[in-house]
Amino acid sequence: MSVDKDTVRRIAKLSRIALDEARVAPMVDELNGIFAWVQQLNEVNIDGVPPMTSVVEQRLKMREDEITDGGNANELMANAPQGEDHFFVVPKVVE
Amino acid sequence: MSERSAKLIKGATGDWEIVIGMEVHAQILSESKLFSGAPTAFGADPNSQVSYVDAGMPGMLPVINRKCVEQAVRTGLGLKAKINLTSVFDRKNYFYPDLPPGYQISQYKNPIVGEGEVLIDLKDGETARVGIERLHMEQDAGKLLHDQHPDHSYVDLNRAGVALMEIVTKPDMRSSEEAAAFLRKLRAIVRYLGTCDGNMDEGSMRADVNVSVRKPGGPLGTRCEIKNVNSMRFIAQAVEYEARRQVDLIEDGGTVKQETRLFDARAGETRHMRFKEDEDDYRYFPDPDLMPLVLDQAWVREIEASLPELPDAKKARFIKAGLSAYDASVLVAEKESAEYFEAMLAAGAEPKAGANWLNNEYFGRLNKAGLAIADGPVAPEANAAIIAMVAKNVISGKIAKDVLDIIWSEGGDPRAIVESRGLKQVSDTSAIEKAIDAVIAANPDKVDEVKAKPKLASWFVGQVMKATGGKANPGVVNALLKVRLGLPEEG
Amino acid sequence: MTTLPGNLTEFTLAEARDAVRAKKVSSKELTTAFVKAVADARPLNAFVTETPEKAIEMAMASDVRIAHGEARALEGLPLAIKDLFCTKGVKTTAGSKILSNFVPPYESTVSQNLWNAGAVMLGKTNMDEFAMGSSNETSHFGPVFNPWRARNSNANLVPGGSSGGSATAVSGNLCLAATGTDTGGSIRQPAAVTGIVGLKPTYGRCSRWGIVAFASSLDQAGPMTRTVRDAALLLKHMASVDPMDSTSVDTPVPDYEAGLESGVKGLKIGIPKEYRIDGAPPEIEALWSNGADWLRAQGAEIVEVSLPHTKYALPTYYIVAPAEASSNLARYDGVRFGHRARATDDIIGLYEKSRGEGFGKEVQRRILIGTYVLSSGYYDAYYARAQKLRTLISRDFTEAFKTCDVLLTPATPGPAFGVGEKTADPVSMYLNDVFTVTVNLAGLPGISVPAGLTANGLPLGLQFIGKAFDEATILRAARATEQAAGFAAKPAHWWRAA
């Protein structure tokens, strides 16, 4: 499997990373180098092998329904690059 | 139970069938959120109910709330659905300002609840069955405010991370009436179960409706999704508009494109929002921060044993007790009305009389006053006492309404009020005969009229009732009057 | 040890603990010495943030407790913390521009455990950006230099990565010990090339809460120390069962120091034949062979085992880790914290520019890989397949552990290399993790212990891989190796002003 410039642009868009045109071609090469290298995984017979969905052999731990958080609007906003009256501010989103 | 009739709409080229499916998002009733300990209460100050986990801060991790899992299982059982003892949480990846981590924790291929069904009542005694495809748990997103500023939107994450149940139906509905009935029934079920408050105004229950049209017997048409219909009133309207739009489009030679639309309540129309192809590739994969959710069968059985009686069972029981299917449906539509009715029965009310009284007298007054049953001024025991007195002929039906009015505005015990205000029905024949004689004597011309038209006897009854201050037993008045006037017995 | 070293910074963690308890040295004296060492070592660029005032403040509070006989396990001992651990009120960058101004309002469970034990914070160490790298060359804050240089050379060498700053700090005596994280080898590989001990515990042993996530199913915090005893001591206090981390395993933390000296008599040491790589430097083979000899001499039995899927581990890792990372790093968008691009027209522009400006090239590359392998049409061919390979790799270990107790392998395919030497081709950089990634994929514990020097004087390490939650056995084996190797070489402190 190899990628082309359009694919790289599409993936960059999906990843929300601005990739200027000058970097697209080199990125195509770098990614293709990596994808060529991972192709060897296709040599392995994986019939009937389950995916490893969790390293840890245990059930999902559940917690009690208690309020243990919240009420910290100031701390929450402290690192916000743009905040107003305890709201995070973003460019206008059209729905 | 009568089978549903075919619901077709007319187009220029003939009949069309509407095919409707729904995805309902219902907020789970719990103190804290699905994966964090922040509170879930509606209406708090912005960003005051947000955990660092909800805010997607670096290094934060989810831990699941047992109560939310229980509520989802409870709902699944209420939908007569299969509970999947093992289910998996997946990440649904996309970027939006109301989704801080850039992914929503949801369930994709292995939801907690599988197939089930909901029975719905339609008009004229018809019923229908709507299949449930699945129910899964997922996080709700935050809220964006757009109208405060021309260039900015504001993000409030209070709602981010609240537990949602997404309930997906099979495309079994065939009319706007069925769609509305389904949503109402689903709402009643979750309110009975206490798993969701079904409050569409506050957004704790939202519906996405999928509508397509086809010629009867033909293949399924392309469907469009109407997003976020947030009121019962709009469901039927939205479905009807969209079905008509699609029929007109096809008959004009066009094709329906798979798209997402919004319902504009003011205009009563659906509007294009986006095409399906424009949507993100969500790149679902199992959330590596969470193990598979494994439930003990014993725990599920415990939950099942704790389920309250649900609308269908309650309705069947009320019908057995003598109520008409219609009256029973009205009473079970809301948990509160059913409970009120049952409290009346417990206080000794006769079922049919109780249902009539509630449906015709008490609920009407509550609606007019804009009060919920829980906020009504009259206790079920009081209402039971009133109709018991009617049943024993202690007071007439008319006086009963008066007594209700008195208790409504002043409170008090019905029996005491009847006693103290002398409202007891007069059944003493000699007293009534006296009153009858007085009326007859005062209206000789009417006596002649009534002999010619026996139906006019009711005028006399009215006069006698007036003369006795409404306290005469109308049945006795009627009987004695007929004898006095020499009228035939009524058939 | 009853006498103080020439320089307080030469203490091991355990020695300093004993000396401080015995009141032979105060925490303030000890901390002051390290604060100075850190300042003098700025040419190494091991620290992103130095916290000298806080350190002295903590040291003084520790001295009060010691005076009152209330010394806790690590009371007054100065440590360095990798900048991937969120430290409350102290800037935490993950080596990235996108977090260059982030001050967490919360403390990671692991670092909180250390403060609860009385430790002192010297500062936050430099690292590969978002832990993605094997040489500490991807940091936004510049590369870290290895305290070691090749004989007769002034060339700067890499300290390995991603925990390069922590490795350098421990190796250069800038702290008593440090915390690191290991996703594909990021503790063990830098430890090996800087001549120190690095331990990655079993997945789920240490809490991940408050550690900036890279690859959730692989990340694990661990100690980086001068000696094996120190690693046992530090691990004991880093580890805990954490109800705030769903992947934290419900197993109590044992006393890792107990049993450390029990030797390896009767222990079966497995040598996986697939770890013998064509083209590896002969010194690696020699080191490995020495290791087996030392253990055999101490009564261990050496058995050959097979881990047939070893060669697929690296490509598997480079699908799974980027996939998880692409999702974990979606939160860095300029809205709630971190770098935010200026002058953007719409929300998409805000995201794209903030992330384009804030993430370095390696991080961007891995996010794109991850997004691609999870995307529609490719999920089955890449991610699903890689997760199945993981099962096979894990089964290899389970099978091997039927005939041995612990595995012995080289830690790295070679010694520290020059800065800029491997940055041209991503795959050649990835190959540095060839011996370590298998362990993360299987979730097992692994430790790297210094075992020898190359011909031109650079340290090499041996790795022990253990069964799940059997840190005790790998520590035992590492201790026996440490004793036999007698690795006493130290780097010359070339960075100190003349």
DSSP strand content of chain A: 5-15%
Count every helix of chain C, treating DSSP H or I runs of 4 or more residues as helices: 15
**Helix and strand pattern of chain A:** HHEHEE
Q: What is the total number of structural domains of chain C?
A: 1
Q: What does this molecule look like?
A:
The complex is a heterotrimer of chains A (95), B (491) and C (498). With 95 residues, chain A is an alpha+beta fold. Helices cover 35% and strands 9% of the residues of chain A. In chain A, strands 2-3 form a two-stranded antiparallel sheet. In chain A, a hairpin with a 2-residue loop joins strand 2 (83-84) and strand 3 (87-91). Chain B folds into three domains: 8-302, no CATH class; 309-420, no CATH class; 429-485, Orthogonal Bundle (Arc Repressor Mutant, subunit A). In chain B, strands 1, 2, 7, 8, 11, 12, 13, 14 and 15 form a nine-stranded mixed beta sheet that branches. In chain B, strands 6-5-16 form a three-stranded antiparallel beta sheet, with no helix packed on it. A two-stranded antiparallel sheet of chain B has the order 4-17. Chain C has helices at residues 13-21, 27-40, 52-67, 109-116, 164-171, 188-193, 228-238, 282-297, 313-328, 347-358, 361-374, 380-400, 426-430, 437-442, 471-485, and strands at 47-50, 78-82, 120-125, 177-182, 197-200, 220-225, 268-272, 301-305, 406-410, 446-453, 459-466. Chain C is globular and about 65 Å long. Chain C has a single domain (130-225, 237-493), classed as Alpha-Beta Complex (Amidase signature (AS) enzymes), CATH 3.90.1300.10. The chains are: A alpha+beta (95), B alpha+beta (491), C alpha/beta (498). The interface between A and C is large, with 51 and 69 residues. Strand 3 of chain A pairs antiparallel with strand 10 of chain B, so a sheet runs across the interface.
